[in-house]
Design goal:
heterotrimer; B: alpha/beta; two-stranded parallel ribbon; 5 helices; 25% helix; C: mainly alpha; 13 helices
Chain lengths: 228, 192, 313
Amino acid sequence: MKDEKIRRVPERIEPAPPDVLKDRAYDPVPASPRREVDPYCYLGATEVQQPLAYREALATIRNWCRANSLWVMAYGTGCGAIELRPLMTSRFDMARFGMAPRPTPRQSNVLIIGGYLSLKTLKRVIRAYEQMPAPKWVVGLGSCTINGGMYWDSYYTINKLDLYLPVDVYISGCMPRPEALIAGFQELMKKIKQGEANGWNEYLENIDDYKINQKRVIGDWRMPDYNW
Amino acid sequence: MQSDGWMTQETVALSGLTRRLEELRGDGHVQLTLMTVTDWLEDGEFEVSYILTDPVLFRTVILGVRIPRETPELPTVSDIWPQAVTYEQEINEMFGIRFEGSPRQGVPFILEGWKDIPPMRRDFDTLKYSVEHYEDRPGRRSIDTRRFVGRVSDEKSFTDAWEPREDDGRERKLADMDGGAAGSDRGETTDE
Amino acid sequence: MQAVLNLDIGYLGLCALSVIGAIAYGLLIGGIIRKVMARIQSRIGPPVWQPYLDVAKLFFQRTSIRHGMMFYLAPVFRTVGGIGIYLLIPIVAGMPGLAGFSFNGDVLLVIYFMFFGCLGMALGAGESGHPHAIIAVSRGLSQMSSYELPFSLALIALVAQVGTFSIGGIIEAQAGGIGNWYLFMNPLAGIAGLLSFLGMQMYSPFNIVLAPQEIPIGPPTEYNSTFLGLMMSGRAIFGVAKSALFMNLFLGGATSIPEAMIKIFVVYMWAVFVGAVFPRFRAEQSVRFFLRWPTWFGLAGIALAMLMKHLAS
């Protein structure tokens, strides 16, 4: 389930235009262009600093609530989506973990990448991911998201998901059974409760790198850089 | 013309294509079930097949027409069957065959922002394209499933077949393209 | 109106407490409903405290996307509509904080408030700019105007029979045993009220507005985080208030808190069990349904009320 050897932050990055990577060494958190523009979307750093004990207690409660109320984006990206149906219905019943399918990215917390991602789908998935409100997690499902799976030599599917989106939990298998999905989601819940599942923070901190990677594979990028 | 009771296969020349299709349609084959393409790379030809069905007598005709690969152009049939527009759009995208008079030619159907030659042509190397454009995660092993065919299914022969060999296509191809250094300088490595 | 003018801080505090209690009770009922539905579908289902976790999580969301002023105000309208109805309706007769600001004519105000929340929701959904939200709002408003008709007919029958527009007066008229409950005194108008209550609660046969499969979640498609948490709270208190209104009009009101809780729960469950059995109506089907049998029952209920009044006099 949890593969610590997988680096989330992409390593091989093509040389970027100099103005994008300017002064990177002095600014570890590069500002996304919308951060100053939109005062309604505050991103952690602007929060009021409270006493440490208070913050820790609040974070514990917050993470516990978040972990026990995961709303899943029901967007079937590949053949793995067929394994989500038994997970939702009577036999495996993910509602007992507090999970519920949500049909809109605005209300969901978990984005499940259910299998291979063609570039056309990747574009939509990036949009959907960026439209989700901030505590959001990505679960990569099946070996297609890990190393391409059986589509490793396909001309239109990506091989490594974590170059383009921050993946919190990988679930291996082709396809993983619903039991494996449940184990993966419990792993995700454990990480959330321990405060380790910070994929969305990494995405914002390394947004330039992710954008470079995304734009390298997506031929016609006709979107704004960040799709609110 | 070959016939298999209810399914007939026939080939026409390019000049007689539209007339033959209209004949068949008047004969009761009113449904265009499928349009598909075969790439005869060795002959230098594409074969576009129209699969027509007679829903009353349950007859099917597979009508093939061969066109040269150099000038892949065909008249459209979307004025006879309007649903052919989507097939023609997809064939145009995947094989580069141009249908004269068909709308949505050149409009992306699946491949958004595609710049290479049409990917379903047989001279398109999909593995090479994938290696060039999409990152790999090292440590992946692909086993040719043909090794398992015809073997006795005991444990020893299974492990034998599972062992990596010299002729595993992926490693060799990667080695060819990278100048003999596959896997060693491709980003991070996994700890075994 | 005398009670409204003689407000003091203590009474307002009691009212605020009762509002918070009603939201908590509505969320608890929501959890019980999810559990019941899960058991009907032979699932285990979420724990009954799941709605509390959901609302807490939504208030803990870190970013929220806004679309404009009406987008902000719609959850407020919805919640205020719910609280307004709740405070007007006497939940437990005579108990401070729960007795409600009942006065003569408040039935009409309550019906207006029920429309008010939905109209605010419609404006907010329009501001969000999502096409699904607008489709769902048009469906919801047409369905709402159709179930308002049998409900109004049942209410006219009730008011004509009792002779007062005050909910308190209606409760007093039903005092003295189950036989005096309006549901049994005028069963035709009672049936019209029961059927239109199904549309009011928006459970399964009439949940085309939320329609989780066809149009993603309906009007709140663009709503997220705190807005959605506020809307869930508003929905909780709205459901409690509507059930309490039905309880007061047709089931004789309540004289103690446990009685009120049990009656509200039973009224709630009536919609839930019907919803568990029947599949969803399309918008025009539900409009046709409400304008057919419940309307006839309502008209017959008015006739029965006039007849009974004539016989009594």
